[in-house]
């Protein structure tokens, strides 16, 4: 069995890792240059959960029954449950390797909380409620790590107006992770080691507009424009130490779950549904940015409502499924077709042509499990994120309705494979669908021994 | 593992195989401790491990209401909602 170390950089785009736009990463860069490099094509939806799980199971979000972080049970307006590792019903790459007699080390792969027993060790992901919870397998690993590195930092708290603090906390978190990985790589037995760093996604979301000169609200700032380059440097230096600790014949994989690009704005999808007559509220909320709730909706006149996020999930007020459904089963397909066409035709506020993508889960997945939305919509090819809140005077919000407002997700991430023994040739490999990666890595580990 | 006494026709114990060398290492490790035999020690350790995980694994949602609220708020701030 070949040893594989996966450096998972959440949301790292080809622009930084392949084109080296604005970053100086001598160690990682030279490894990538000596690797086989693919443009990793992510899944629908292009979001951390489910994307990493798609990568490590080879199953589509439909087969996994995971369409994002949160889901609703039929009949609910808002979310009912949050995805966690108990929803993983398919064999992961680490299960496969364990069953083949290998040892695995898993750190930060979403969603792995609550932890499961593995042949090796596991530290859970940023969805772990806190370091007071059991986040490690075996259980004594938690104490072992905390006695050396302090309480594990899973994520940082986002504040829109205190960027310096967000930066400092992100650097502190990632420094701790890199030290832990170096320790685990040296001290533990493993054949497959997967380390996903979420900090890079947070850095992109919070600081992209100070970094990418093509951002529509690009702002040069002496301090903040350095944050992303400094962060990549931190990763590069940490990786240098990790690489030194890796056994010489280890295959090194650098992968991301999706890419990132500038956010053009937020599209208030429910405001648009109201304007087009699909959704009716009993009265207009007094405060812009109000969450949509069941009580606010005039159900007798509502055909559909939506959720926001990096993509929009649309739900039809279907009779027999929703408590006050008005769309009959026989009308469902026509309503879906009409609404899809209308969503595709949405233009920007200045009449700009948008490339909107509207999909039915049944059309894109071989199987649709769990609680899927009726429609999935991406506005202007993801450049406009969706806002689910209401009370706005226009659907076009120049900035996010809440949260960070600098970056949105993109379809292409990276997937690179470096084999010191040369069995994987270097150079560009074209496009790699995220669903194929689990099989590729399994073969790499088990067939080329 | 101890051979089972029987209650209601169902064995209360079962046998788990472990390598003889590991058995001997455990036997040596527990000499002079409160564990009377290897089975007692193995059962104790496994129970300690299993209890750490089974509650969170059995519930569909392992989060408390408070944790859930915090996670939702975090997802909001991160732009996922």
Structure, described:
- The complex is a heterodimer of chains A (449) and B (81).
- Chain A is α/β, with parallel strands linked by helices and 449 residues long.
- Chain A has two domains: 4-261 and 409-446, Alkaline Phosphatase, subunit A (3-Layer(aba) Sandwich); 265-405, no CATH class.
- Helices cover 30% and strands 19% of the residues of chain A.
- Chain A has helices at residues 14-17, 26-33, 48-57, 61-64, 93-99, 140-149, 163-187, 199-207, 227-245, 269-275, 329-344, 361-364, 437-446; strands spanning 4-9, 36-41, 70-71, 81-82, 104-107, 120-123, 136-137, 192-197, 251-255, 259-262, 265-268, 304-307, 312-316, 357-359, 375-378, 384-387, 396-397, 407-410, 412-418, 427-433.
- In chain A, the strands form five sheets. Chain A has a nine-stranded mixed β-sheet, with helices on both faces. A four-stranded antiparallel β-sheet of chain A has the order 12-13-15-14.
- In chain A, helix 7 runs antiparallel to helix 8 and helix 7 (163-187) runs parallel beside helix 9.
- The relative contact order of chain A is 0.21.
- The mean pLDDT of chain A is 95.
- Chain B has 81 residues and is mainly alpha-helical.
- Chain B has one domain (6-78).
- Helices cover 56% and strands 5% of the residues of chain B.
- Chain B has helices at 20-29, 38-58, 65-78, and strands at 6-7, 10-11.
- Chain B has a two-stranded antiparallel sheet.
- Chain B is elongated, with a radius of gyration of 21 Å.
- The relative contact order of chain B is 0.08.
- Residues 1-6 of chain B have low confidence and may be disordered.
- The A-B interface holds A 47, 68-70, 79, 81-82, 84, 86, 113-117, 127, 129-130, 134, 137-139, 155, 157-159, 202, 205, 307-310, 385, 388, 400, 402-405 and B 48-49, 52-53, 56-57, 59-64, 67-68, 70-72, 74-81.
